[in-house]
Structures are given as structure tokens and as C-alpha cells.
Design the sequence.
């Protein structure tokens, strides 16, 4: 009787463990980065927030306008719009930027009117997230010393389990694509990636500390695949 | 029971702090806006809510918390108001830390939205200021009602006058207090300092009011003829709704001015401004309807049937509007056009505003004396004319105008406003029948505060709309930073001048109800 019971218990345990979902094996860290970069390159669009903390990073040579944050939408391959928050001495200002291929517009600091500028005149997220030459291919080619820290849940994204990885990134190319704000030194990189979709939720870039304070850049992404309508601004004043 | 004078002195301390916080941020607001990283173009109208939100909640609490204390007891309601004020002060001091993170998380979990941290911090700060104001505003009518309990009718005017004077003194020196503290400490210190003061006041008032009898003895149903006043909750709700939607409606137009990602030219009117203003008018209409029918109205309409009550209230509203334009414009002028640092801006604004508010407080004494001898009309009219003259002179200010020129202009306006206050208050109170004197006292403050609130909201909207229009007109295309700043200063100067013109005109308009007053001297 006890033998039959033991057999039943064994059978039941085996059946229950068969029902339990199999733990997905964690892929090698290089593969995670490759899949993440490929996923981000394939996206038709996404929403982003770039935030700078720590030592200031300036948008002008006179060092009067410090970049604080940019929030906006990117639509592949070359469209972006964002609100960039800059800190000037004694005041904080928002500037709208819009980029459509080679064309680039900014809002006037004083009256919010759109003005067209030659390309390359200001910070452009479309350059930073360019699927061919932007952050996505950079992750695959320039990231070294990669390590997987495990699966984490970010404080501000409750319930979202993410791969946490870190590594080092040579900053020269990033320096060019970020309006010379990030880099050119080697930068410490932390990534948080969805284990199922390989969507990149967060990138944190920590530059080497100068004067005891490092500049930290945090980029958050969401609305993966969403195509926002980005059209040229109406330049006529009302 | 403790000596009534001691109790009045004790309850005056929190009332003073609450009133202090009405104007404490006017000098330090640019500092707060910068510290929370609120963008100037898109956030200035929202930042105005740090001031107008406080005024609004302070006014709302005044409309019904006195009546509530009739029902549940002065001690309970006063201590509750004090605790709310202290809790609000704490929340203001920490607004950009854990409450902002909590608000952000709530927004994310409930709506899936990731709010801009700067605006989340500002919204949290405004909410905290409104909590603080609700407590601060509630203490005034409860304190006044307490004076009514402690003193017989013939001796009541003195403690009531003391409470009103303490309340006025608080908001008269608030900006100076804020300016001085910000010179040496972080602006949050203003609110941290409230906490020990409130704790001490709470303990002392808790003990002092322990033996105070309840207005309605517990467990004893009152006889129908002595039925205690009931709380008019629908009335409170309707006036609250009306004032809130009015302020939201007046403030909403400025939101259309700058939308950094709006690629179409902005429209002059927000799509929800008109519905909000209609809702405000409808709620006000319902409030009036309710007051006409309620057994125990919050604001007895019979009062407005008396000429001096109506005229005095209208004049108070217009003077409150004009006065607050001056109080808001002086720091704006100094911070935008004169000061080189935010600390200097707060310090200079605090002192310069004293040139307006100290003469105002001092002039209220001869205002009362003249009113008793000559009647309400002469001193009130002279005061209004002084206010108009002072505000008209302020329209001549330029960036290069020295403080020595600005001070006499501010003092003249201050003397004018001060002269008119006592006669207008006396006109309203003395016109009210005995049983409505308390409500009439509240009317004076409520109308002035409502004028101030409407002034902040409407002038913030007007200023931003005009600034946008003028800068589009004056700024050359693709101007560099230096040119942009130069034009920005010209625009600020022009817009401030125009708001002074509007304030002077509205102050002048107050002459009509003032001249309509029945000129009764108390000596007669």
C-alpha cells in the first residue's frame, strides 16, 4: 500500500513539474545585446526621454545653456520631435525641436515660434537614434566588457522584470551623434532589457568624473513600434 | 477657563503664520520655479497656482469652517485646522521629494503615463500649498467665532479687531519674511520653520481651550426655536466649485500660448476656458439660489440688499485685484529687469514690497479715525485715488528706474489702499444687522481675497498672451541669444507696465461703489 502511495506521489510530482513553465535559459550577454540592438533597429518608432544629471553638459560654446532633459518621439528612419529643457543662469527654458530628414526646426526661446535652421545646428535625437549610424548599431559594435547583472525590477517601473547588463562604451562616435555632449571618453553603460521582447527600456551612461562629479545620462524608451505623426511646423505667425 | 486675552493671543500666532504664508512666496517664487526646473515659457502660468491656489483654498476655508465650528466645537475645528496647516507646511517643504515620486508612481500605475518630473513636483507643491492654505484660512473664522464665545457682545469688537489686524499683518510682512529667509537659507526653510511653531501652538491651544464649552452641549437636543445653525454643505460645495472653475478658466488661456511641440499656430483661447467660465457662472447662480432658500445660509443674501454691504464688497473686490497686481508685479519686475541673481531678487523684492505694505498697514489707522469723523466716503475715496495715483506712477517704471524713485510710488499706493480699508470694512459691518455681523466681517476678507485670486489668474493669462504677441512682433527671425534676451526684457517691461495700467483702471473703477456708499459717520 505504501509502495503504491509512494508511486502515486512520484507520478503526481512528475506531472506537476511537467505543467510548470520551463525557465527560459538566459542567453549569453553578447546575444542579449545583439538581439536588443536588432530589435531597436527594426522598430518603426518609439517614445524617449533623455535626462542628464550630475555635472552639466552644455549646448553652446559659451556654456550658458546646459542640457537637462529631452522628451519626444522618434520615427524611423529620420524623423524626430522633442521638447528639450535647458538651464540658463537663473531660468529654465523649453525648446521644441523637430527634424524631418535633412530639415531641422527649433522653437524660439521667447515666443515659441518655429524657426528653420540648417541641419547640425542643434541637438537632434534623429541623429542619436539613426538606425544605421546611431545608438542602436553602436551598442552592437562598441560595447565591451559586457556582464549580465541578473534580472531586476526598476523602482519606477513596478512589475517589469528586465535583464540588467553593464559594460564599457568607447565615447568617440557617441560624442559626434550627441551634439558633442556625451563622451568622447570611455563611458560606463548600464542597460535594462525586456527578456521576452528584447525591447530596451533604459540605458544609463556614466561619464568619467571631472571635478569629482560625473555626468549621468539616462535614456528611457517606451511606446515601442508606435509611429507618431511628425509633420513640418506651420511657420506663419497667427 | 483661562483668561480670554491669553487665548486670543495664543490663537493669533497660527493665524499670523497662516497669513504670512499667503504672500511669503511672492518674493521667492522665481527661486522656487528655478529650483523645481519649471520652464519659464510653459510653466509660468502653472507656477502662478503656487500663489493663487493658496489664495483660493484660504478663501474657501473661510467661507464655511467658522460655521462648522459652531456644530462640532471650536477647539476641535481650530486644532484640526492647525494640524492641516502644519501638515501642508511639511508637504510644501518636501514637495519635490517623496510626494513627487509618489504622485509620479500613482500617475504611472493608474493611467500608465510617465509625467514630467518638474511638472509633477509643481503640481505636488500646489496641492501641498492648498492643504496648507485650507488650514490657515480656516483658523481665521474659527478664531473670530472663538472671540465671540469668549467676550460679551459689547467687548467683542476689540478681540475681533486684533484677529483681523494680525491676519492683515501676516500677509503684509510675508514677502519680506520670505525674502530675508531666502537670502540666508533654502526657500524650503520658510515652511520647515512653521512646524515647531505649530507644534508649540498646538500644545498650548490644546490646553488653553480644554475647558471651553461646546457651542451645542453634547447629547442635548436643542429646542426647535433654539435650533443651532446647520452647516450649509451644498452652499459650501457650490461656492467652492464656482471659485475653482473661475480660476481654472481664467488661467487656462495662458496654456495655449506655448506648446513646444504644437506645430500649428497657437490659438488665443483655450478650448476649455469658456466651458469653465460658464460652469463658474452656473455654480455661482446655483449658490445664490441656494443661499436664498437655505435656513442657515453661508452668505446671507439679505446683506447685499443693504447698499453699504454691496458697495463695500464690490469696492473690496476691485481693491483686492489691484493690490495683488502690485504685490505680484514688484517681484516680477525686480527679478526680470533688475536683479542679477535669484537671491538678490528675493531680497530686493521683499524690501521693496514693504514700501507698499508697511504704509498700507499704517494708513489703515488714520483711515479708521477719519471714517469715524467724516463718514466712510471721504477717506475711502481719497484712498482709492491714492491707489490709482500710485499705480499710475508705477506704469512709468523702466529697467533703469532706481529704487529711490520706485519707493514713493509704492508708498503712495500703499497709503491709498490702507486709507480705504477701514472705512470699507466699517461700512459693510455697520450696515449688517446684529445677527449677521460675523458674516459681514467674513465678507470683507472674502471679497478682497477673491479679488486677489482673480487678479493673479487673469493677469498671469493676460501677461503671457501679451508677452507672446509682443515677442512675435519685436523679435527678428533667427535672433541670437543676446538679442533674444534683450527683446525679452523689453517685452517684460512693456507687459508689466500694461498690467499696472489695468490695475490702476480697476482701482479707479472702485471709486464708483465708494461714491455710492451712504456716508454715515459713526459719531453721528
Sequence:
Amino acid at each position: 500500500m505504501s509502495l503504491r502511495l509512494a508511486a502515486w506521489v512520484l507520478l503526481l510530482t512528475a506531472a506537476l513539474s511537467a505543467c510548470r513553465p520551463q525557465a527560459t535559459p538566459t542567453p549569453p550577454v553578447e546575444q542579449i545585446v545583439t538581439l536588443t540592438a536588432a530589435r531597436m533597429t527594426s522598430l518603426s518608432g518609439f517614445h524617449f526621454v533623455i535626462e542628464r544629471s550630475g555635472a552639466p553638459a552644455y549646448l553652446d560654446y559659451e556654456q550658458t545653456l546646459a542640457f537637462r532633459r529631452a522628451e519626444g518621439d522618434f520615427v524611423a528612419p529620420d524623423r524626430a520631435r522633442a521638447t528639450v529643457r535647458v538651464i540658463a543662469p537663473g531660468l529654465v527654458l523649453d525648446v521644441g525641436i523637430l527634424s524631418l530628414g535633412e530639415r531641422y526646426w527649433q522653437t524660439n526661446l521667447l515666443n515659441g515660434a518655429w524657426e528653420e535652421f540648417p541641419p547640425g545646428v542643434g541637438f537632434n535625437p534623429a541623429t542619436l537614434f539613426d538606425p544605421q549610424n546611431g545608438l542602436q548599431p553602436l551598442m552592437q559594435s562598441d560595447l565591451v566588457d559586457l556582464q549580465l547583472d541578473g534580472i531586476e525590477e526598476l523602482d519606477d517601473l513596478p512589475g517589469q522584470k528586465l535583464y540588467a547588463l553593464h559594460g564599457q562604451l568607447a565615447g568617440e562616435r557617441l560624442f559626434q551623434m550627441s551634439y558633442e555632449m556625451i563622451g568622447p571618453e570611455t563611458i560606463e553603460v548600464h542597460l535594462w532589457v525586456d527578456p521576452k521582447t528584447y525591447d530596451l527600456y533604459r540605458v544609463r551612461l556614466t561619464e568619467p568624473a571631472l571635478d569629482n562629479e560625473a555626468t549621468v545620462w539616462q535614456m528611457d524608451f517606451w511606446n515601442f513600434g508606435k509611429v507618431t505623426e511628425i509633420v513640418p511646423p506651420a511657420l506663419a505667425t497667427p | 477657563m483661562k483668561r480670554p486675552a491669553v487665548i486670543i493671543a495664543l490663537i493669533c500666532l497660527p493665524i499670523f503664520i497662516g497669513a504670512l504664508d499667503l504672500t511669503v512666496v511672492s518674493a521667492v517664487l522665481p527661486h522656487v520655479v528655478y529650483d523645481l526646473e519649471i520652464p519659464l515659457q510653459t510653466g509660468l502660468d502653472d507656477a502662478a497656482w503656487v500663489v493663487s491656489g493658496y489664495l483660493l483654498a484660504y478663501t474657501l476655508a473661510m467661507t464655511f469652517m467658522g460655521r462648522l465650528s459652531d456644530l462640532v466645537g471650536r477647539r476641535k475645528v481650530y486644532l484640526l485646522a492647525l494640524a492641516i496647516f502644519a501638515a501642508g507646511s511639511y508637504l510644501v517643504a518636501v514637495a519635490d521629494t517623496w510626494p513627487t515620486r509618489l504622485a509620479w508612481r500613482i500617475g504611472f500605475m493608474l493611467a500608465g503615463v510617465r509625467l514630467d518630473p518638474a511638472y509633477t513636483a509643481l503640481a505636488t507643491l500646489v496641492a501641498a500649498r492648498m492643504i496648507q492654505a485650507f488650514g490657515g484660512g480656516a483658523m481665521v473664522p474659527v478664531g473670530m467665532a472663538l472671540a465671540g464665545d469668549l467676550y460679551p457682545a459689547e467687548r467683542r469688537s476689540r478681540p475681533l479687531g486684533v484677529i483681523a489686524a494680525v491676519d492683515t499683518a501676516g500677509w503684509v510682512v510675508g514677502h519680506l519674511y520670505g525674502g530675508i529667509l531666502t537670502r540666508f537659507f533654502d526657500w524650503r526653510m520658510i515652511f520647515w520653520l512653521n512646524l515647531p511653531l505649530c507644534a508649540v501652538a498646538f500644545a498650548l491651544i490644546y490646553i488653553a481651550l480644554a475647558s471651553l464649552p461646546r457651542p451645542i452641549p453634547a447629547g442635548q437636543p436643542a429646542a426647535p426655536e433654539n435650533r443651532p445653525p446647520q452647516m450649509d454643505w451644498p452652499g459650501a460645495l457650490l461656492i467652492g466649485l464656482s471659485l475653482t472653475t473661475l480660476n481654472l478658466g481664467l488661467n487656462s488661456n495662458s496654456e495655449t500660448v506655448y506648446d513646444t511641440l504644437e506645430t500649428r499656430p497657437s490659438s488665443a483661447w483655450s478650448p476649455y476656458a469658456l466651458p469653465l467660465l460658464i460652469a463658474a457662472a452656473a455654480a455661482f447662480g446655483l449658490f445664490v439660489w441656494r443661499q436664498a432658500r437655505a435656513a442657515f445660509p453661508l452668505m446671507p443674501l439679505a446683506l447685499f440688499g443693504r447698499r453699504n454691504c454691496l458697495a463695500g464688497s464690490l469696492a473690496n473686490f476691485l481693491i483686492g485685484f489691484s493690490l495683488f497686481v502690485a504685490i505680484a508685479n514688484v517681484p516680477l519686475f525686480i527679478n526680470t529687469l533688475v536683479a542679477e541673481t535669484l537671491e538678490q531678487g528675493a531680497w530686493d523684492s521683499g524690501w521693496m514690497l514693504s514700501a507698499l505694505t508697511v504704509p498700507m498697514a499704517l494708513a489703515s489707522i488714520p483711515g479708521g479715525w477719519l471714517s469715524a469723523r467724516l463718514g466712510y466716503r471721504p477717506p475711502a475715496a481719497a484712498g482709492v485715488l491714492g491707489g490709482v495715483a500710485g499705480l499710475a506712477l508705477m506704469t512709468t517704471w523702466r529697467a533703469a528706474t532706481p529704487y529711490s524713485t520706485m519707493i514713493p510710488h509704492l508708498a503712495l499706493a500703499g497709503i491709498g489702499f490702507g486709507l480705504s480699508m477701514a472705512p470699507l470694512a466699517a461700512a459693510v459691518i455697520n450696515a449688517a444687522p446684529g445677527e449677521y455681523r460675523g458674516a459681514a466681517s467674513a465678507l470683507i476678507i472674502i471679497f478682497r481675497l477673491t479679488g486677489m485670486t482673480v487678479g493673479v489668474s487673469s493677469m498671469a493669462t493676460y501677461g503671457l498672451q501679451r508677452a507672446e504677441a509682443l515677442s512675435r512682433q519685436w523679435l527678428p527671425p533667427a535672433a541670437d541669444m543676446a538679442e533674444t534676451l534683450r527683446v525679452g526684457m523689453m517685452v517684460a517691461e512693456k507687459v508689466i507696465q500694461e498690467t499696472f495700467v489695468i490695475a490702476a483702471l480697476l482701482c479707479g473703477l472702485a471709486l464708483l461703489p465708494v461714491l455710492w456708499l451712504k456716508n454715515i459717520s459713526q459719531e453721528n
Q: What stands out?
A: Chain B touches chain A at residues 30, 33-34, 37-43, 104-105, 108-109, 114, 116, 118, 257-268, 341-342, 467-468, 471-472, 475, 477-479, 481, 484, 487-488, 491 (CB under 8 Å).
